[in-house]
């Protein structure tokens, strides 16, 4: 048995570690820039006490990064088999925690989802992601992938949907939406692509229904159905009821959008979608965040304004600029090139995670790897998408970049459990 | 299981597709679309325009008329308003609770994060009562601004007023530098001399944060410029004389214009009914403006410049001068007072020369004078003869500055109308009219239209025996003189000797036995007034009274025209009013025996009408 450092020196995936450190480092620079105040005298910092320093987000972020590094060590020390073994136990614990959180948490920013342990605030929803990923991987590893029974699929769906339902109950819709990412991982593990296609088509129709007059859509889809039937009558005539059914569902969706929009969505959610469709509506009210975010990023130009030189972020035009809107600082101070590098870092990390996942011998490891990639990808999609006006404003952080201990720890845990599993895979090889 | 492994490419393709969409979108908003950079500058770069101190306005004697006083706007940033006790707040502002709520609603509608005015035009006293308590109400602040205040209650029409620029004006290129809400001269001298009064704006570029708090100068003030205060205006108006004339015109509609004939400077400029210039300034200005606008007496109408009336008998002087210059009559030409030609004003002595004709204002005499000017046998066709003659007559008359804008230093001026042959061609048909059609012009009635200012300028021209300076209000801008166009002498193309020929007649109007203007006589204080009465036929009601004069007759220092609507015969109201203004200007006081006039003249015009009882 090698010593722990020696063990990991050879087997840990250093590329991922390097990418992780790069992203956390670059992220910290941007958190520093976002919380940097040009008015504050710099020279006085050395005379400040720890408590006073803790008033600065950039300093707290150093503390969070430091603790994350400790966390990494802890995660690597734990026997990777434990994640497999404990997956269901952790899942049960998490469900209990999610249920009781709204009852014991103080309301913060409109939701009762933060647990306070002394000075540390934790959001159970953050940790629900990797725990659900572990449990789902464990479940998938235990069934026959080729011949999934309907019951298996139902259990898996329930397993995946229970946490987001509880999270929505705590009014953290953004965090709940992240669980949609699991579909991508399940797709890799054999879920029918039709489900993805149907979902994509559904989303497409919903967007069309919001943008295009309903009558046009009714006519358009009817004509489309007629053309399809006429062109391929020989085969399709056997599926006329099915075709008509699809047509009816589509039209139903088109006309159901208004009902969903007006009666199901909450007021602020509806407005966020309205802003997406018409960004110039109410630029000083609900549209403020997105408008200012786009201005900050757009004013960055090709090469950016330079480190600490961003005016839109410095002068507080962009709200929540060190957490959900951290990408504004990237875009404003580092320009298009900096944005591309950031996107490149994410692509590199996601590609590497897929690579690591694919080399796992166990279904558990591979599924978990895909879950990690999908969750990070989903955050990346929605977070950057909302800052440039391509996605609705959903309050989820940009992994490794956004300020905040809870999110950094959660993503660190997510990633390093995978690395620990991956490292153990090599040891398994060595052992046998 | 092999087929599932291929799906890793699908997953990676999805990742890459999203990255590609983001990169493209970012390239578009960051590199291609410049509008975000502009928006960013709009956000943080506050262009602080320093409105310069507006020029002051002084009267002829150096008395200050218009000055600047600070007023305050109470601004609100809705987002920063915390737990507002609207009841206490409305009590503090001494405004109804509803109004405060309404105002806050409006401000919120405008913007939650940008300041907008809640209450405007607070005086220093009003500010003092609320300022100390304002600290209890976060989100509210006070913005200081300069507003006009007046040291006089007179000459509102001449001074004009300032108001915030309208969206319509903002679109015009000459107002491109104005900011929405900025104040500028709307009418009168405030408007005509806007450029001089305004001065030059200073511009400072400041970096501000989202709350509008300054974060320092942009590039160390490299692009900043200092403001230059506006230039003061020194008016030719004498506020004492003006106040006196306004007091006499109280209760009437009409105008008084007094000129210094030697310079063209306007000494008094009354448009009745008058209003206090203070009405169009400060808190509640909008409401008061609407009141004035909807007043049936039309106090906002600038009568001396805009009201064109037939001049009546005063115009006979011009006709006589034109005829003398044309050589068709001499001062001693007699014409019979022939009632068959035109009804005369009254029975009078035989007009054996122009002096008697002017004194008696004999209509048939001047009918024949103008006929002699117009019908001179230029064509064998009598219609064509009248056409050519009227055209010739008009060219000469227009040299007096009639039928065209004089070019006074105030907008709104009307041209008036000296009808041309084409005018009658159009109305009656080509060669369908002759002198008999247009003879009303000979006695200043009919189609002709002249403004009070134009008539005053005619009087100044007669006083000067043939020349005038364009009338103007401003004799000095800053430390300099008037605008260059007011330093050019205009001659009217009539020889001085012809003027000398009519002046004795004008003196006898006032001082002669049986003159129509004896009420204007100042002979008792040694001033000889040369004048002419006029009664303008008014198809809509009582005739208008007018009197035009200058004095002293042989060294004229004032030329004046008084026009009183619906006051009947010019000799009974307009003449004594003109005399009082002349005496006030020349002597600085009024002879005691004329105080009865001072008491009698103010008031409605109908008292001057002697109605026949049937």
Can you describe what's shown?
The complex is a heterodimer of chains A (432) and B (614). A two-stranded antiparallel ribbon of chain A has the order 1-2. Chain A has helices at residues 4-11, 14-35, 50-53, 57-77, 81-104, 124-141, 150-169, 173-177, 182-188, 193-211, 214-231, 233-236, 240-264, 267-277, 288-298, 311-314, 326-358, 363-387, 405-431, and strands spanning 115-117, 120-122. In chain A, α2 (14-35) runs antiparallel to α4 and α6 packs antiparallel against α18. By secondary structure, chain A is an all-alpha fold. The N and C termini of chain B lie far apart (125 Å). The radius of gyration of chain B is 33 Å and the shape is elongated. Chain B is α+β, with helices and mostly antiparallel strands. The mean pLDDT of chain B is 89. In chain B, α4 (86-93) packs across α5 (97-110), α14 (316-326) packs parallel to α16 (363-374) and α15 packs across α21. Chains A and B meet through α9, α15, α16, α17 and α18 of A and α2 and α3 of B.
Shape of chain A: globular
Provide the structure class of chain A.
Answer: mainly alpha
* Overall pLDDT metric of chain A: 84
Helix content of chain A: over 70%
Question: Structural class per helix/strand content of chain B?
Answer: alpha+beta
Rg from alpha-carbon coordinates of chain A:
24 Å
Shape of chain B: elongated
As laid out across the biggest beta sheet of chain A, the strand order is 1-2
The N- to C-terminal Cα distance of chain A equals 13 Å
Low-confidence stretches of chain A: none
For the secondary structure, the number of strands of chain A is: 2
Q: Which pair of chains has the greatest number of interface residues, and how are they split between the two chains?
A: A-B, 50 and 41 residues
Q: Can you say what the CATH homologous superfamily of the largest domain in chain B is?
A: DD-peptidase/beta-lactamase superfamily
Number of domains of chain B: 2
Radius of gyration of chain B: 33 Å
CATH class of the largest domain in chain B: Alpha Beta
How many β strands of chain B by DSSP?
A: 20
Number of helices of chain B: 23
* Low confidence ranges of chain B: none
Largest sheet of chain B: 6 strands, mixed
Write down the CATH topology of the largest domain in chain B. Answer: Beta-lactamase
């Amino acid at each position: 048995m090698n010593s722990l450092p020696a063990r990991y020196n050879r087997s840990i995936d250093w590329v991922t570690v390097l990418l992780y450190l790069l992203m956390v480092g670059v992220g910290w620079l941007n958190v520093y820039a976002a919380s940097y105040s040009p008015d504050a005298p710099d020279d006085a910092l050395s005379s400040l006490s720890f408590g006073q320093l803790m008033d600065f987000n950039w300093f707290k972020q150093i503390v969070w990064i430091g603790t994350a590094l400790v966390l990494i060590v802890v995660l690597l020390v734990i026997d990777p088999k434990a994640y497999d073994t404990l997956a269901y136990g952790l899942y049960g614990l998490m469900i209990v925690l999610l249920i009781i959180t709204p009852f014991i948490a103080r309301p913060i920013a409109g939701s009762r989802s933060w647990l306070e342990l002394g000075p540390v605030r934790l959001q159970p929803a953050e940790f629900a992601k990797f725990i659900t990923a572990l449990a789902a991987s464990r479940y998938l590893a235990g069934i026959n992938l080729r011949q999934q029974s309907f019951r298996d699929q139902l259990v898996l769906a329930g397993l995946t949907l229970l946490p987001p339902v509880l999270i929505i109950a705590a009014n953290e819709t953004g965090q709940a939406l992240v669980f949609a990412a699991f579909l991508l991982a399940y797709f890799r593990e054999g879920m029918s692509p039709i489900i993805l296609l149907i979902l994509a088509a559904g989303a497409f129709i919903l967007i069309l229904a919001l943008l295009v007059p309903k009558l046009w859509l009714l006519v358009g889809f009817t004509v489309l159905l007629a053309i399809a039937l006429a062109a391929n009558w020989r085969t399709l005539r056997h599926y006329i009821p099915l075709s008509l059914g699809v047509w009816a569902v589509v039209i139903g969706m088109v006309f159901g959008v208004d009902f969903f929009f007006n009666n199901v969505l909450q007021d602020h959610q509806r407005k966020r979608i309205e802003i997406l469709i018409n960004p110039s509506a109410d630029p000083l009210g609900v549209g403020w965040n997105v408008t200012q975010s786009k201005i900050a990023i757009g004013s960055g130009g090709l090469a950016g304004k330079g480190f600490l030189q961003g005016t839109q972020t410095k002068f507080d035009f962009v709200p929540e600029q060190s957490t959900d809107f951290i990408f504004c600082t990237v875009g404003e101070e580092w320009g298009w090139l900096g944005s591309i590098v950031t996107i490149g870092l994410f692509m590199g990390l996601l590609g590497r995670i897929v690579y690591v996942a694919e080399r796992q011998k166990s279904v558990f490891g591979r599924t978990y790897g895909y879950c990690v990639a999908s969750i990070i990808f989903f955050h990346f999609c929605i977070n950057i998408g909302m800052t440039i006006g391509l996605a609705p404003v959903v309050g989820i952080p940009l992994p490794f970049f956004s300020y905040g201990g809870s999110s950094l720890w959660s993503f660190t845990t997510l990633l390093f459990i995978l690395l620990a599993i991956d490292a153990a895979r090599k040891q398994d090889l060595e052992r046998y | 299981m092999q087929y599932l492994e291929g799906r890793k490419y699908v997953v990676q393709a999805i990742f890459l597709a999203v990255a590609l969409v983001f990169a493209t979108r970012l390239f578009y908003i960051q590199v291609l679309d410049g509008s975000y950079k502009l928006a960013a500058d709009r956000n943080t770069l506050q262009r602080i325009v320093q409105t310069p101190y507006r020029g002051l306005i002084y009267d002829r004697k150096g008395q200050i008329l218009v000055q600047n006083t600070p007023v305050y706007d109470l601004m609100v940033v809705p987002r920063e308003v915390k737990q507002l006790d609207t009841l206490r707040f409305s009590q503090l502002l001494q405004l109804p609770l509803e109004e405060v709520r309404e105002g806050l609603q409006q401000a919120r509608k405008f913007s939650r994060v940008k300041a907008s005015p809640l209450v405007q035009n607070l005086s220093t006293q009003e500010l003092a009562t609320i300022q100390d308590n304002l600290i209890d109400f976060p989100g509210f602040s006070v913005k200081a601004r300069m507003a006009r205040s007046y040291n006089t209650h007179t000459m509102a029409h001449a001074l004009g007023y300032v108001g915030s620029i309208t969206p319509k004006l903002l679109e015009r290129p000459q107002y491109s530098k104005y900011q929405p809400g900025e104040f500028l001269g709307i009418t009168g001298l405030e408007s005509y001399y806007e450029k001089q009064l305004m001065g030059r704006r200073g511009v400072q570029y400041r970096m501000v944060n989202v709350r509008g708090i300054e974060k320092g100068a942009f590039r160390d003030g490299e692009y900043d410029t200092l403001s230059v205060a506006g230039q003061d205006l020194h008016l030719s108006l004498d506020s004492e004389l003006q106040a006196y004339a306004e007091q006499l015109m109280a209760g009437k509609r009409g105008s008084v214009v007094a000129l210094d004939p030697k310079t063209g400077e306007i000494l008094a400029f009354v448009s009745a009914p008058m209003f206090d210039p203070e009405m169009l300034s400060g808190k509640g200005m909008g409401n008061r403006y609407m009141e004035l606008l909807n007043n049936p007496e039309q106090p906002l109408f600038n009568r001396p410049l805009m009201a064109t009336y037939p001049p009546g008998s005063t115009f006979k002087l011009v006709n006589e001068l034109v005829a003398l210059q044309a050589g068709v009559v001499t001062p001693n030409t007699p014409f019979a007072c022939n009632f068959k030609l035109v009804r005369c004003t009254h029975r009078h002595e035989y007009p054996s020369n122009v002096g008697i004709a002017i004194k008696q204002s004999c209509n048939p005499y001047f009918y024949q004078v103008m006929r002699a000017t117009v019908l001179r046998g230029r064509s064998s066709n009598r219609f064509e003869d009248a056409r050519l003659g009227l055209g010739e007559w008009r060219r000469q008359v227009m040299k007096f500055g009639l039928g065209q804008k004089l070019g006074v230093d105030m907008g709104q001026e009307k041209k008036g109308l000296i009808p041309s042959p084409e005018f009658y061609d159009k109305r009656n048909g080509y060669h369908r009219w002759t002198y008999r059609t247009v003879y009303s012009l000979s006695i200043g009635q009919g189609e002709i239209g002249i403004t009070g200012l134009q008539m005053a300028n005619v009087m100044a021209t007669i006083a000067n025996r043939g020349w005038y300076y364009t009338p103007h209000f401003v004799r000095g801008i800053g430390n300099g003189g008037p605008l260059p166009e007011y330093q050019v002498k205009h001659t009217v193309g009539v020889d001085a000797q012809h003027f000398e020929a009519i002046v004795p007649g004008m003196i006898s109007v006032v001082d002669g036995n049986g003159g129509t203007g004896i009420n204007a006589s100042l002979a008792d204080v040694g001033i000889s007034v040369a004048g002419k009465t006029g009664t303008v036929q008014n198809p809509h009601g009582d005739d208008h009274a007018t009197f035009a004069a200058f004095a002293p007759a042989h060294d004229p220092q004032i030329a004046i025209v008084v026009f009183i609507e619906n006051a009947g015969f010019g000799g009974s109201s307009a003449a004594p009013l003109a005399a009082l203004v002349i005496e006030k200007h020349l002597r600085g006081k009024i002879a005691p025996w004329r105080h009865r006039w001072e008491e009698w003249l103010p008031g409605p015009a109908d008292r001057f009408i002697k109605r026949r009882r049937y």
